[in-house]
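#structure-requests
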Amino acid sequence: MEKFCVFCGNKPDSKNMEHIIPKWLIELTGDLHRKISLGYDFNKDEPTIREFSFNSFRFPSCKACNSRFGNLEGLTKPIIIKMLGKNPISDIEINILLDWLDKIRIGLWLAFHYLDKNYFGIDPNYYISFRNAATDRMVAIYYTNKDMQRINFIGVNVPIFYYNPCCFTFCINNLILFNMSTQFLFARRIGFPFPESMFQMENGKMEVNIVRGLHRFILPLIKRPFIKPCSEFYQPMFGHQEYQPIRNIFYDNEFVRKYSMDWEKGIGKVFIQEDKSLSVYPNEEDCIWQPEEIYEREYLDHKLGIQTLEFQIYLSKLGPSIEKLPKEIKKEAKAQSSFSRNINKLLIKKMERI
């Protein structure tokens, strides 16, 4: 398979290799050279569990891209250390955390694309830089009762993630981050412009019919329930390149500007949702981000495994309509969706029996 930079998608201009899971995080959570299981190798006659040294879990990148996103790693490291120590953090730091989760989530998607030698025949039409800080996103934060060193990611080695890398769970020692991001995930319910209809087109782009926002909150921001109590953070985003032609028409108003961290860049403010209330996270460092509940680790890992698979199915149904695609392409898309959702359903049933 031809090499591409995981950040920009172009042919790498040097022999730089990017750690999808950064070295500082690997060292923070244990031995740099320890082995991890990375799902199944589907290219063998009988699928076998794949093992790698964390330090060798690296993929091609351009020198400039590596340097740019290295700055994000430098900003994120002290935030993760603060969160592991249950110290106060600010709205800017949660924004950086969400940027970093975008990078990790899309990076893992591209990493498995490499490892599996594109087993599912997917043509990646975006890369880390394209999806970073581009679409509505949220993170639910949990803590477990066992302060053991570990890195674990849930929901990244299933077909539905290969087709639609919008949801995963990331475990860092006893800190658990359940993350989702996709276009217009909660735009309507947070009062921002939203699509009246969306259609997938044959050229890979979308036809989106945007309408003006409601300029009010509808709670909860995501209707499907998930494991609570936890700390929930939401950030509306409109920096995606597809938003640019319509920004001045639909986004240049008092409501959107009021709830924007950086309107020019299409970055909304960070919101915290508690019970039946929604508020803007404070600018200064605060401890209100910390979840009150401490869960038993095995219980939470199991429940979040199911939750991640369920939300991947849920998000796959929120995507654009395929009704405008040619008949044969539509048929293939339906089969693909049915196959990937059924795999998740089978895994959920298996986990629920445990």
